[in-house]
Write a structure and sequence with these properties.
There is one protein chain. The chain is of the alpha/beta class. The protein has 3 domains: 36 residues, no CATH class; 234 residues, Zn peptidases (Aminopeptidase, 3-Layer(aba) Sandwich), CATH 3.40.630; 159 residues, Glucose Oxidase, domain 1 (3-Layer(bba) Sandwich), CATH 3.50.30. The protein contains 16 helices and 14 strands. Strands 1, 2, 3, 4, 5, 6, 7, 8, 9, 10, 11, 12, 13 and 14 form a 14-stranded mixed β-sheet that branches. Strand 1 and strand 2 form a beta hairpin. The N terminus is likely disordered. Bound molecules: zinc ion. Zinc ion binds next to helix 11.
Length: 472
């Protein structure tokens, strides 16, 4: 831009021959090339500094340990969710954030106290490892004790007569499709049973639902998750893949087998909760916000290390890196630890509504909620021109494990910002182990590798530095 102005000024205000003109053009081009390579070298140096810092720093890792051990099961409405928010709030204050505040909102929530599922084989009661789906209702009285009907999916259930289903527990047992390489797509291959299964079974008169856990291992961990009820709610739970196989075999041996199911859970009509927001003020455009975040809640059965404690501590680490290295940010870097990604996705909507109502400009939003394994890339949900600009930075991040920056999805919490035209991004890591632990008690702190965590923080800080410096 500056070079153009200089060029025009020269044309209009100086008497020049064609030869001189060519020389001037050449000099300007050289200056631009020198300026470009200086910027490139300078950017490389800043990014190297970011990684020199982050690969020797364990604050984010220690914060994650706290979240997983002192506030596991951080579901919206739980005491643990507030312990986690308060801990991270204090951390942002310690970092010297320019402002730290709780964005309050009121929303329904749900609580699960216990889930028990068992079968009787040869007079012996065998417990199946199970966790209720959210927001399952409680079973009434002493619980359900009834026959089971196994199906391999929604279509098979819908093809049955209602009388066949009436009063029974529907058992969805179609396994995931393990041939698919991306485990997010593996997950999608069976998630319809968990999300829509209880609703469809309720409409057909079933008294309860059991779902084979949506995961990539045959193991003993139930993987819970949300289910989309309409009017009628029936008790529903996920059982581990090992237990799904046990139940399926027992049903083959004895079609009259009965399952006992006791769920103690309750709807919480209205609770007050919070997104945690910390800002690092920009020095040129302080009213433009570059959002980086993850979700602070986790399922009641899970310490939530990869989902999504790690996204939270990495996002906080972006602020730490900017502060410690003294990187000047033009725009305000806003770290948001969203509440309630898991159950009703109320935190993301609450933030989008809050910023819309207050005419706050979100310049870009980046979410880390796809596991914290070895970095792979960034996906960008924006116009082709914005995708083009951001993907241009890939070569600078290649040495640090970013092998692609391409068009794609972002994150559930920042999704509601899309309607307001905000460019969205998602941080992506190697997904192979993610569905082993997703929404289960297996998602513990020890599954997180400190260097993988650090590389994530570093790459998130680096891409924000570049987007902030050059703009979109
Ligand atoms: Zn998540």
């Amino acid at each position: 831009m500056d070079a153009n102005i200089l060029f025009n000024t020269l044309i209009f205000h100086t008497f020049i021959t064609k030869k001189t003109m060519n020389r001037i053009t050449l000099i300007i081009q050289l200056l631009l090339i020198i300026n470009f390579s200086f910027s490139q070298n300078n950017d490389e140096k800043v990014i190297r500094d970011i990684f020199d810092n982050v690969l020797l720093n364990d604050e984010a890792y220690n914060n994650l340990e706290y979240l997983c051990t002192e506030a596991p099961g951080r579901l919206i409405g739980s005491d643990e969710s507030i312990i986690a928010v308060n801990f991270m709030k204090d951390y942002f204050k310690k970092l010297g954030a320019d402002s730290v505040f709780l964005q309050e909102f009121i929303t329904p929530a749900w609580k699960c106290n216990s889930t028990e599922v068992s079968i009787l084989i040869d007079g012996k009661e065998i417990q199946l490892r199970a966790d209720a789906l959210g927001p399952s209702p409680s079973t009434q009285g002493k619980g359900l004790f009834t026959n089971v009907i196994e199906v391999q999916g929604l279509d098979e259930l819908k093809a049955l007569d209602k009388e066949e289903v009436q009063g029974k527990i529907v058992f969805y047992n179609r396994p995931v499709d393990m041939r698919i390489v991306s485990t997010f797509r593996v997950y999608s291959s069976a998630i319809d049973q968990r999300y829509y299964g209880p609703k469809v079974a309720a409409e057909m008169g079933a008294s309860g639902v059991l779902v084979r856990s949506v995961g990539t291992r045959i193991d003993t961990f139930p993987h819970t998750g949300s289910t989309g009820f309409k009017e009628i709610k029936i008790p529903c739970a996920a059982i581990s893949t090992v237990d799904a196989n046990i139940l399926s075999k027992a049903l083959k041996d004895n079609k009259a087998l009965k399952v006992k199911m006791v769920i103690d859970a309750e709807d919480m009509e209205e609770i007050t909760t919070y997104n945690l927001i910390a800002d690092l003020r920009g020095n040129e455009f302080p009213d433009e916000f570059i959002v980086v975040g993850g979700h602070i809640d986790s399922w009641f059965n899970s310490p939530g290390a990869h989902d999504d404690g790690i996204g939270c501590v990495q996002s906080a680490d972006v602020m730490r890196i900017f502060k410690e290295l003294g990187i000047e940010n033009k725009r305000t870097i806003r770290v948001i630890l969203f509440m309630d990604e898991e159950l009703f996705q109320s935190g993301g909507s609450a933030y989008a509504n809050y910023t819309h109502a207050n005419e706050i400009k979100n310049y870009l939003a980046l979410e880390a909620d796809a596991g914290g394994f070895t970095p792979e890339g960034f996906t960008v949900d924006a116009s082709d021109s914005v995708v083009g600009i951001i993907s241009g930075y890939q070569s600078l991040l290649e040495p640090y494990g970013i092998h692609y920056i391409k068009k794609g999805g972002s994150g559930v919490d920042i999704g509601p910002l899309k309607q307001f035209g905000v460019p969205l991004m998602g941080y992506r890591t190697d997904s192979q182990r993610y569905m082993d632990l997703h929404h289960s008690a297996y998602d513990t702190f020890d599954k997180v590798h400190i260097r993988e965590l650090q590389l994530g923080s570093g790459n998130m800080a680096a891409i924000i530095f570049l987007v902030d410096k050059y703009g979109l």
